[in-house]
Design goal:
96 residues, 2 domains, three-stranded antiparallel sheet, binds zinc ion
């Protein structure tokens, strides 16, 4: 087998591995998206977006927040969740 053929084989394998990893990642993302969409369909807020404390506030939702806090802005004002830290914000999403 020539050097070129070997090299080509390795590249193809690497590309196939990357493609498979990307496919798995895509599938996992779709599954997670479907799971969160199902929760939202049931009226459960998934806190998918939020604003962090800023002084002065840029967005109205930032008014009244204390340093470290994040307020959920998903939907149109239905959710009033405020996390007191990044850890709490992430833990709340992990618990869904
Ligand atoms: Zn929320």
């Amino acid at each position: 087998m020539s050097y070129f053929a070997d090299d080509y084989g390795t590249d193809t394998e690497a590309i196939e591995t990357l493609q498979r990893d990307a496919d798995l990642e895509q599938t996992a993302m779709e599954r997670e998206g479907n799971r969160l969409a199902a929760l939202r369909a049931k009226g459960i807020c998934t806190h998918s977006s939020g604003v962090m404390y800023r002084d002065p506030p840029v967005y109205p939702e930032q008014a009244g927040l204390r340093p470290g806090q994040t307020r959920c802005t998903e939907g149109t004002g239905g959710c009033t969740f405020v996390a007191n830290s990044d850890e709490e914000w992430n833990a709340t999403q992990d618990a869904l």
